Amino acid sequence: MNLKQAGSGSEVDERLAALLTNANAVRAITAAVEGTIGPKGLDTMLVDRFGEVIITNDGVTILDKMDVNHPAAKMLINIAKAQQAEVGDGTTTATIMAGGLVSEGVSQVMRGVPVARVIEGVKFGISCAVEELKKRGHQVQDIDDPMLEKIAMIAGREHHDIAELVVAAARLVGLEKLCEPNFKLSDIITAEEGAENEVFLGVIVDKERVSKEMPLEVIEAKLLLVDDALEPEEIEDEALSTEAGFKRYIEIKDEFKANLQKIIDLGVQVVLVDRGVHEAAEELLTDAGIMVIQRVSMKDMRRVAEHSGARVIKRTGLKKDLADLERYLGFAEKVYEDEKLEQVRIVGGKGKPMATILVGAATEEVVGERERIAKDAASSVQAAAKGGYVPGGGSVEIAIARAVEKSRDGAKGMAAYGVDCVANALKRPLAQIVENAGFNPLEKVERVVAAQVSGGVDSLGVDCDSGETADLLAMGVVDPVPVKLHAIKAAGEVAVAILRIDTIIKKKEEGVAKTAGTADAAMPDF
Fold first, then answer.
1. What is the pLDDT of residues 249-301, one digit of tens each?
2. I need a labelling partner for 448 at 20 to 30 A (CA). Which of 157, 269, 315, 426 fits?
3. What distance in Å separates the CA atoms of residue 496 and residue 116, rounded to the nearest whole number?
4. Helix or strand or coil: residue 20?
5. Pick from 379, 381, 480, 358: which is nearest to 149 by CA?
6. Quick count: other Cβ atoms within 10 Å of Cβ 346?
7. What is the C-alpha separation between 183 and 191, in angstroms, rounded?
8. What is the set of active-site residues?
9. Which of 189, 122, 139, 131 lies closest to 162 in space, CA to CA?
10. CB atoms within 10 A of CB 522
11. DSSP assignment of 54-83, as one string?
12. Lowest-confidence range among 262-276, 351-365, 440-454, 480-494?
């Protein structure tokens, strides 16, 4: 994306050049994703120079794949990525509100309000918005709360099959597991072309057996997980040329064979290896009827360990005696390879329950998008389980904007104009949602504001099918509190950071010597 530098030229005050340049960059980024928000949002096609195409309406995917070179634009994209990493959804909302805050802030500055006062008011308004949002949260009662299904549907872009998969998986792992800080429900999702939609208690390892001669299926399996290569230690060629080195080489080979024999003697039936497997090990273990899977990612290794109750061991740990090695083994009711999908499944583990969501896709082109949709739904369901939910569809932002407007008197002097920026930015999500649905955003936003005030109901918004004002909470249009909280905070942070930039200076390249006549500093050529 080429972003023009604004603010240069005699017609623009030089003091505002950096601010206007950054505001234009942020506006360009916001424009790239705002058409995707809401139930009537459309898709974006991303095309690279090789003709590879991605069609999506996932905000963070669009931002991540865009060709952007403006520093302020990159700041906004990084905030969206942080939103995705933290709560897994809400990136488009965060981007739209951030863009709105910057735009409103620039408008106030152009009117003569000092930037420092605008920033002060934005911080005050964001703090107020966060507190108001927390007051409006509804807690999930239990894992069978029907609101989880509604949340999965909204975040899953109304894909019923994906929402059902996500909720079923959430119920399998339980509310306690969902609330664990290091567990992410989205991590258990995989999408495969030609697969059937499925949720099961178990783990998928996206690898095949090392050899087709190994068992295709193992019942009541003992598992050994090796976080290393299943190979003998290496000896340098120079060492092999000496008598001592050759003797050590023979000892290593014998020791390696002895370690492999221990695996057989323990009755191990499945071995997962982090790296490669030596041909001698492959032959010996194949003859023993043991299934071996190599180059398993550490992420999958940890999930298998947790599910089977195994402890991951290093190659040197195989030197332990049989009694010690026994304590490292895991157990599963069944381990088998799905030859069609080219993956191995471990089900019925004796450790912690681990669910897997397998999302089917008809063609290769839609696999990625189906997976992104499922991950958004899973992230939202987990966020709601942790932090509760609020009315969605932009309605809660309108209610918060009204509260922020009332708090305006608490701001000092001209900082009140910064508070106005926050109130107006909070109205942007609803305005964009109804615009994408084909209605007049100015009319609908004002109608919702009036309806909330007269009816005293903060969950009133717009039904995007009819265009009528409706109670979105009663309709089941809800969003997780953590997603909204993070979006508001992130939007405020990036807006303040961009509004604070007064001058843009091009850095010299590190390690490049100056040549005669080179200026010490120059404005960047964006």
1. 688 888 889 999 999 999 999 999 999 999 999 999 999 999 999 999 998 99
2. 157
3. 10
4. helix
5. 381
6. 29
7. 19
8. 58, 91-92, 376
9. 189
10. 11
11. EEE--HHHHHHHS----HHHHHHHHHHHHH
12. 351-365
Predicted TM-score (pTM) of the model is 0.77
Residue 330: strand pairing partners: 223
Residue 399 binned pLDDT confidence (cut-offs 50, 70, 90): very high
C-alpha–C-alpha distance, residues 265 and 259, integer Å: 10
Radius of gyration of the chain (CA): 29
H or E stretch covering 154: helix 147-155
Paired tokens of 159: 């894909």
DSSP 8-state secondary structure symbol assigned to residue 142: S
- 355-361/189-193 β-pairing: parallel
Cα three-residue angle 73-76-80, rounded to 5 degrees = 140
Contact between 324 and 266 under an 8 Å Cβ cutoff? The reply is: no
Q: Which residues contact 228 (CB under 8 A, 6 or more apart)?
A: 273, 274, 275, 314, 315, 316
List Cβ neighbours of 216 (8 Å cut-off, separation of 6 or more): 209, 336, 337, 339
Cβ burial of 398 (10 Å; 0-12, 13-18, 19+) is buried
Give backbone dihedrals phi and psi of 217, rounded to 5 degrees, phi first. -145, 140
Q: Which domains does the chain have, with CATH numbers?
A: 14-138+391-499 (1.10.560.10), 199-361 (3.50.7.10)
Q: 16-70, pLDDT tens digit by residue?
A: 888 888 888 889 889 989 999 989 999 888 888 888 888 888 888 888 888 888 8
% the chain with pLDDT above 90? 59
